[in-house]
Amino acid sequence: MFVYNKHYIYSAKCITEEVTISGEKILQTYHNLESIPKLTQDSVATFGVFDGLHIGHQDVIETVRTRADADNLASVLFGFYPHPLALLAPEKCPPVLMCLPKRLEILKQLRIDIAIFVNFSEQIASMSPDIFVNNVLLDLCRAKHVVVGYACQFGKDREGNAGLLESMGQQSKFGVTVVPPTQLNGLPVHSTRIRQAIARGDLGLASQLLGRIYSLSGTIIKGDGRGRQLGFPTANIEPGEQLCPPNGVYAIRGKLTDRWLDGVLNIGIRPTFNGTKFQVESHFFNFDELIYGETIEIYFVEKIRSERKFSNMRALVQQIHRDISVAEEILAQHPKVHL
Hints:
By secondary structure, this protein is of the alpha+beta class. The chain is built from 10 helices and 19 strands. A hairpin with a 2-residue loop joins strand 12 and strand 13 (about 185-190). Helix 7 packs antiparallel against helix 8. Mean pLDDT is about 90; it is low at about 1-5 and about 10-30.
Protein backbone atom coordinates (compact mmCIF):
# COMPACT_ATOMS: atom_id res chain seq x y z
CA MET A 1 0.00 0.00 0.00
CA PHE A 2 1.42 3.34 -1.01
CA VAL A 3 0.69 5.97 1.65
CA TYR A 4 2.48 9.29 1.69
CA ASN A 5 2.20 11.97 4.37
CA LYS A 6 5.09 14.12 3.22
CA HIS A 7 5.89 16.31 0.25
CA TYR A 8 7.76 14.64 -2.59
CA ILE A 9 9.84 16.18 -5.31
CA TYR A 10 11.44 14.60 -8.36
CA SER A 11 13.63 16.50 -10.77
CA ALA A 12 15.25 15.66 -14.05
CA LYS A 13 17.34 18.78 -13.47
CA CYS A 14 19.39 19.48 -10.37
CA ILE A 15 17.42 21.84 -8.12
CA THR A 16 18.40 20.20 -4.83
CA GLU A 17 21.23 18.04 -3.63
CA GLU A 18 20.74 14.67 -5.30
CA VAL A 19 21.39 11.25 -3.81
CA THR A 20 22.15 8.52 -6.34
CA ILE A 21 22.16 4.77 -5.81
CA SER A 22 22.85 2.47 -8.78
CA GLY A 23 22.20 5.34 -11.13
CA GLU A 24 18.73 6.07 -9.75
CA LYS A 25 17.83 9.39 -8.17
CA ILE A 26 16.21 9.26 -4.75
CA LEU A 27 13.09 11.31 -4.05
CA GLN A 28 13.72 14.30 -1.82
CA THR A 29 11.08 14.81 0.88
CA TYR A 30 9.73 18.08 2.28
CA HIS A 31 7.36 18.52 5.19
CA ASN A 32 5.91 21.89 4.20
CA LEU A 33 5.77 24.31 1.30
CA GLU A 34 8.36 26.61 2.85
CA SER A 35 11.02 23.88 2.84
CA ILE A 36 10.77 23.27 -0.91
CA PRO A 37 13.57 25.28 -2.54
CA LYS A 38 12.67 27.74 -5.25
CA LEU A 39 13.55 26.84 -8.78
CA THR A 40 16.66 28.35 -10.30
CA GLN A 41 14.99 28.85 -13.69
CA ASP A 42 11.74 30.47 -14.83
CA SER A 43 9.13 27.99 -15.95
CA VAL A 44 5.97 27.00 -17.72
CA ALA A 45 3.88 25.34 -15.02
CA THR A 46 0.74 23.30 -14.60
CA PHE A 47 -0.98 22.01 -11.48
CA GLY A 48 -3.56 19.45 -10.42
CA VAL A 49 -4.04 15.90 -9.14
CA PHE A 50 -3.01 14.07 -12.34
CA ASP A 51 -4.36 10.71 -11.19
CA GLY A 52 -3.92 8.27 -14.06
CA LEU A 53 -1.99 10.70 -16.26
CA HIS A 54 -4.56 9.90 -18.95
CA ILE A 55 -4.57 11.18 -22.52
CA GLY A 56 -6.22 14.44 -21.42
CA HIS A 57 -3.45 15.03 -18.89
CA GLN A 58 -0.93 14.15 -21.57
CA ASP A 59 -2.34 16.89 -23.84
CA VAL A 60 -1.89 19.41 -21.01
CA ILE A 61 1.68 18.21 -20.37
CA GLU A 62 2.54 18.29 -24.07
CA THR A 63 1.32 21.90 -24.17
CA VAL A 64 3.52 22.71 -21.17
CA ARG A 65 6.57 21.13 -22.79
CA THR A 66 5.99 22.74 -26.18
CA ARG A 67 5.66 26.19 -24.65
CA ALA A 68 8.66 25.65 -22.36
CA ASP A 69 10.85 24.52 -25.25
CA ALA A 70 9.79 27.49 -27.37
CA ASP A 71 10.59 30.00 -24.61
CA ASN A 72 13.66 28.18 -23.23
CA LEU A 73 11.98 27.70 -19.84
CA ALA A 74 11.71 24.74 -17.46
CA SER A 75 8.58 22.58 -17.62
CA VAL A 76 7.07 22.15 -14.14
CA LEU A 77 4.20 20.07 -12.80
CA PHE A 78 2.88 20.85 -9.31
CA GLY A 79 0.69 17.97 -8.16
CA PHE A 80 -1.24 16.76 -5.13
CA TYR A 81 -0.95 13.29 -3.60
CA PRO A 82 -3.09 11.87 -2.10
CA HIS A 83 -6.24 13.33 -3.64
CA PRO A 84 -7.40 16.59 -1.95
CA LEU A 85 -10.68 14.89 -1.03
CA ALA A 86 -8.71 12.63 1.32
CA LEU A 87 -8.51 15.73 3.53
CA LEU A 88 -11.62 17.67 2.57
CA ALA A 89 -14.19 14.86 2.34
CA PRO A 90 -12.68 11.41 2.98
CA GLU A 91 -16.02 9.68 2.42
CA LYS A 92 -16.06 11.05 -1.15
CA CYS A 93 -12.39 10.41 -1.95
CA PRO A 94 -12.12 8.26 -5.11
CA PRO A 95 -9.88 5.18 -5.31
CA VAL A 96 -6.42 5.74 -6.75
CA LEU A 97 -5.75 5.08 -10.43
CA MET A 98 -1.99 5.46 -10.20
CA CYS A 99 0.32 5.39 -7.18
CA LEU A 100 2.94 8.10 -6.78
CA PRO A 101 6.01 6.15 -7.96
CA LYS A 102 4.17 5.22 -11.16
CA ARG A 103 3.18 8.86 -11.76
CA LEU A 104 6.80 9.90 -11.45
CA GLU A 105 7.86 7.15 -13.87
CA ILE A 106 5.31 8.27 -16.47
CA LEU A 107 6.20 11.94 -16.02
CA LYS A 108 9.82 11.08 -16.67
CA GLN A 109 8.74 9.35 -19.91
CA LEU A 110 6.71 12.45 -20.81
CA ARG A 111 9.90 14.50 -20.31
CA ILE A 112 8.63 16.92 -17.67
CA ASP A 113 11.69 18.68 -16.22
CA ILE A 114 10.43 19.02 -12.65
CA ALA A 115 7.54 17.33 -10.87
CA ILE A 116 6.61 18.41 -7.35
CA PHE A 117 3.97 16.45 -5.44
CA VAL A 118 2.67 17.73 -2.13
CA ASN A 119 0.25 16.41 0.43
CA PHE A 120 -2.90 18.53 0.21
CA SER A 121 -2.81 20.17 3.63
CA GLU A 122 -4.97 22.61 5.60
CA GLN A 123 -2.41 25.24 4.65
CA ILE A 124 -3.07 24.73 0.95
CA ALA A 125 -6.82 24.23 1.39
CA SER A 126 -7.12 27.62 3.09
CA MET A 127 -5.31 29.55 0.35
CA SER A 128 -7.43 31.97 -1.65
CA PRO A 129 -7.00 31.67 -5.45
CA ASP A 130 -4.75 34.72 -5.61
CA ILE A 131 -2.53 33.50 -2.76
CA PHE A 132 -2.17 30.07 -4.40
CA VAL A 133 -1.21 31.65 -7.71
CA ASN A 134 1.22 34.15 -6.19
CA ASN A 135 2.83 31.96 -3.53
CA VAL A 136 2.93 28.59 -5.29
CA LEU A 137 2.88 29.19 -9.05
CA LEU A 138 4.64 32.55 -9.39
CA ASP A 139 6.97 32.46 -6.38
CA LEU A 140 7.79 28.80 -5.74
CA CYS A 141 7.50 27.54 -9.33
CA ARG A 142 8.68 30.80 -10.96
CA ALA A 143 5.97 30.44 -13.59
CA LYS A 144 6.01 32.86 -16.49
CA HIS A 145 3.25 30.89 -18.17
CA VAL A 146 0.60 28.57 -16.67
CA VAL A 147 -1.15 25.78 -18.57
CA VAL A 148 -4.38 24.27 -17.23
CA GLY A 149 -7.21 22.06 -18.37
CA TYR A 150 -10.57 23.61 -19.16
CA ALA A 151 -12.14 22.32 -15.91
CA CYS A 152 -9.40 23.37 -13.50
CA GLN A 153 -10.37 24.54 -9.99
CA PHE A 154 -8.10 25.95 -7.32
CA GLY A 155 -8.03 27.97 -4.12
CA LYS A 156 -10.22 27.86 -1.05
CA ASP A 157 -13.61 26.26 -1.70
CA ARG A 158 -12.49 25.79 -5.34
CA GLU A 159 -13.27 29.43 -6.05
CA GLY A 160 -10.64 29.64 -8.79
CA ASN A 161 -11.22 28.42 -12.34
CA ALA A 162 -9.69 28.82 -15.78
CA GLY A 163 -11.45 32.13 -16.43
CA LEU A 164 -10.23 33.65 -13.16
CA LEU A 165 -6.71 32.43 -13.88
CA GLU A 166 -6.77 34.17 -17.26
CA SER A 167 -7.88 37.41 -15.60
CA MET A 168 -5.11 37.10 -13.00
CA GLY A 169 -2.61 36.48 -15.78
CA GLN A 170 -3.59 39.73 -17.49
CA GLN A 171 -3.26 41.65 -14.23
CA SER A 172 0.01 40.08 -13.07
CA LYS A 173 1.63 39.75 -16.50
CA PHE A 174 1.96 35.98 -16.78
CA GLY A 175 0.68 33.95 -19.67
CA VAL A 176 -2.18 31.45 -19.44
CA THR A 177 -3.15 28.66 -21.83
CA VAL A 178 -6.40 26.77 -21.25
CA VAL A 179 -6.34 23.37 -22.95
CA PRO A 180 -9.74 22.30 -24.31
CA PRO A 181 -11.18 18.90 -23.36
CA THR A 182 -9.65 15.85 -24.96
CA GLN A 183 -12.46 13.71 -26.34
CA LEU A 184 -12.85 10.01 -26.99
CA ASN A 185 -15.99 8.63 -28.63
CA GLY A 186 -17.59 12.05 -28.40
CA LEU A 187 -17.15 12.43 -24.63
CA PRO A 188 -14.50 14.28 -22.56
CA VAL A 189 -11.66 12.27 -21.07
CA HIS A 190 -11.41 12.54 -17.28
CA SER A 191 -10.43 10.38 -14.32
CA THR A 192 -14.02 9.73 -13.22
CA ARG A 193 -14.83 8.22 -16.61
CA ILE A 194 -11.80 5.94 -16.32
CA ARG A 195 -12.80 4.80 -12.82
CA GLN A 196 -16.29 4.02 -14.05
CA ALA A 197 -14.90 1.97 -16.96
CA ILE A 198 -12.58 -0.04 -14.69
CA ALA A 199 -15.30 -0.58 -12.07
CA ARG A 200 -17.61 -2.15 -14.65
CA GLY A 201 -14.78 -4.18 -16.20
CA ASP A 202 -14.42 -2.26 -19.46
CA LEU A 203 -10.64 -2.52 -19.57
CA GLY A 204 -10.52 -1.76 -23.31
CA LEU A 205 -12.10 1.65 -22.82
CA ALA A 206 -9.99 2.31 -19.74
CA SER A 207 -6.82 1.58 -21.71
CA GLN A 208 -7.92 3.93 -24.52
CA LEU A 209 -8.60 6.71 -22.03
CA LEU A 210 -5.33 6.15 -20.18
CA GLY A 211 -3.20 5.65 -23.26
CA ARG A 212 -1.79 2.52 -21.65
CA ILE A 213 -2.95 -0.76 -20.13
CA TYR A 214 -4.32 -0.32 -16.61
CA SER A 215 -2.03 -1.62 -13.87
CA LEU A 216 -1.75 -2.05 -10.11
CA SER A 217 1.46 -1.78 -8.10
CA GLY A 218 2.17 -3.39 -4.76
CA THR A 219 4.53 -5.25 -2.51
CA ILE A 220 4.35 -9.04 -2.68
CA ILE A 221 3.02 -10.45 0.58
CA LYS A 222 2.59 -13.94 1.97
CA GLY A 223 -0.69 -15.67 1.31
CA ASP A 224 -2.00 -18.86 2.86
CA GLY A 225 -0.07 -21.09 0.43
CA ARG A 226 -3.22 -22.67 -1.00
CA GLY A 227 -2.20 -21.96 -4.59
CA ARG A 228 1.11 -23.73 -4.12
CA GLN A 229 -0.72 -26.71 -2.63
CA LEU A 230 -2.80 -26.92 -5.80
CA GLY A 231 0.32 -26.73 -7.99
CA PHE A 232 -0.06 -23.05 -8.92
CA PRO A 233 2.14 -20.89 -6.66
CA THR A 234 0.88 -17.34 -6.43
CA ALA A 235 2.23 -13.87 -5.69
CA ASN A 236 -0.22 -11.84 -3.64
CA ILE A 237 -0.33 -8.06 -3.34
CA GLU A 238 -2.28 -5.67 -1.16
CA PRO A 239 -3.67 -3.02 -3.54
CA GLY A 240 -4.43 -0.54 -0.77
CA GLU A 241 -6.44 2.39 -2.12
CA GLN A 242 -5.82 1.56 -5.78
CA LEU A 243 -8.89 0.79 -7.88
CA CYS A 244 -9.31 -2.90 -8.73
CA PRO A 245 -11.31 -4.26 -11.66
CA PRO A 246 -14.32 -6.50 -10.84
CA ASN A 247 -13.76 -9.89 -9.25
CA GLY A 248 -12.65 -12.50 -11.73
CA VAL A 249 -9.74 -14.08 -13.60
CA TYR A 250 -7.51 -12.01 -15.89
CA ALA A 251 -4.67 -12.52 -18.33
CA ILE A 252 -1.87 -10.34 -16.99
CA ARG A 253 1.73 -9.30 -17.31
CA GLY A 254 3.83 -8.55 -14.27
CA LYS A 255 6.85 -6.27 -14.25
CA LEU A 256 9.29 -7.34 -11.56
CA THR A 257 12.19 -4.88 -11.60
CA ASP A 258 13.46 -5.39 -15.17
CA ARG A 259 11.76 -8.75 -15.80
CA TRP A 260 8.42 -9.37 -17.51
CA LEU A 261 6.30 -12.30 -16.35
CA ASP A 262 3.20 -13.64 -18.12
CA GLY A 263 0.44 -15.03 -15.97
CA VAL A 264 -3.14 -15.22 -14.74
CA LEU A 265 -4.60 -13.30 -11.83
CA ASN A 266 -7.60 -13.88 -9.61
CA ILE A 267 -9.33 -11.01 -7.85
CA GLY A 268 -11.95 -11.87 -5.28
CA ILE A 269 -12.75 -13.86 -2.19
CA ARG A 270 -12.10 -17.41 -3.50
CA PRO A 271 -15.62 -18.79 -2.93
CA THR A 272 -14.55 -22.40 -3.53
CA PHE A 273 -12.75 -22.17 -0.18
CA ASN A 274 -15.65 -20.26 1.43
CA GLY A 275 -13.39 -17.24 1.60
CA THR A 276 -14.48 -13.80 2.75
CA LYS A 277 -11.21 -11.84 2.51
CA PHE A 278 -10.63 -9.89 -0.70
CA GLN A 279 -7.38 -10.98 -2.37
CA VAL A 280 -5.35 -10.15 -5.46
CA GLU A 281 -3.20 -13.15 -6.37
CA SER A 282 -1.19 -13.85 -9.51
CA HIS A 283 0.23 -17.08 -10.90
CA PHE A 284 3.12 -16.53 -13.29
CA PHE A 285 3.94 -19.17 -15.88
CA ASN A 286 7.12 -21.20 -15.38
CA PHE A 287 8.06 -19.13 -12.35
CA ASP A 288 8.50 -20.37 -8.79
CA GLU A 289 10.86 -17.94 -7.05
CA LEU A 290 10.30 -16.58 -3.54
CA ILE A 291 9.85 -12.84 -4.07
CA TYR A 292 8.18 -11.70 -0.84
CA GLY A 293 8.80 -8.04 -0.12
CA GLU A 294 9.54 -7.13 -3.73
CA THR A 295 7.45 -4.57 -5.61
CA ILE A 296 5.61 -5.68 -8.72
CA GLU A 297 3.43 -3.90 -11.27
CA ILE A 298 0.57 -5.95 -12.69
CA TYR A 299 -0.92 -5.06 -16.08
CA PHE A 300 -4.49 -6.20 -16.77
CA VAL A 301 -4.43 -7.31 -20.39
CA GLU A 302 -7.87 -8.96 -20.65
CA LYS A 303 -10.56 -10.51 -18.46
CA ILE A 304 -11.02 -14.25 -18.93
CA ARG A 305 -14.03 -14.99 -16.73
CA SER A 306 -15.88 -13.99 -13.57
CA GLU A 307 -15.09 -15.56 -10.22
CA ARG A 308 -17.24 -18.54 -9.31
CA LYS A 309 -17.47 -21.37 -6.81
CA PHE A 310 -16.46 -24.89 -7.84
CA SER A 311 -17.89 -28.09 -6.36
CA ASN A 312 -14.47 -29.61 -5.56
CA MET A 313 -10.72 -29.08 -5.90
CA ARG A 314 -10.45 -31.25 -9.00
CA ALA A 315 -12.93 -29.06 -10.87
CA LEU A 316 -11.07 -25.96 -9.76
CA VAL A 317 -7.68 -27.29 -10.91
CA GLN A 318 -9.12 -28.24 -14.29
CA GLN A 319 -10.51 -24.73 -14.69
CA ILE A 320 -7.19 -23.16 -13.74
CA HIS A 321 -5.49 -25.18 -16.49
CA ARG A 322 -8.11 -23.88 -18.95
CA ASP A 323 -7.60 -20.32 -17.69
CA ILE A 324 -3.85 -20.63 -18.24
CA SER A 325 -4.34 -21.87 -21.82
CA VAL A 326 -6.69 -18.96 -22.58
CA ALA A 327 -4.28 -16.47 -20.98
CA GLU A 328 -1.37 -17.78 -23.04
CA GLU A 329 -3.37 -17.28 -26.24
CA ILE A 330 -4.37 -13.75 -25.23
CA LEU A 331 -0.86 -12.70 -24.20
CA ALA A 332 0.66 -14.08 -27.39
CA GLN A 333 -1.32 -11.39 -29.22
CA HIS A 334 -0.23 -8.53 -26.93
CA PRO A 335 3.43 -7.56 -27.32
CA LYS A 336 5.00 -6.06 -24.20
CA VAL A 337 5.83 -2.87 -26.09
CA HIS A 338 2.18 -1.80 -25.86
CA LEU A 339 2.16 -1.78 -22.07
